[in-house]
Fold Site-specific recombinase, phage integrase family.
Amino acid sequence: MACAGCDFNVPKASARAQALESKTSIGHYLEAVPLTADERAIVEGDLAKLDGLGLIRKLDDVPTLDGRTPSQIEAKKIDNHGRPNSAFVLIPFVRNEM
């Protein structure tokens, strides 16, 4: 469970979350349920509509609860050198034994 302040939080009520969930459900449906050619064409058409509308991409600029857009959150995860940005810095520990 993600709190409202987490970078990866997408509110359940958002259209972006619903679109992503729909896309995932359609993928699972195609894999798990034996379908006739007509049924498969309908399901694949639904998937194409989700992709073709660019609905998920359009929602990249809709702010999350903390006011940042998903694009801004993703940009923050990468530093200026193309490496993942971490909240923790590892400091090497050297034991000095005398």
About this structure: The chain has four helices and no strands. The radius of gyration is 20 Å. Residues 15-32 form the longest helix (18 residues).
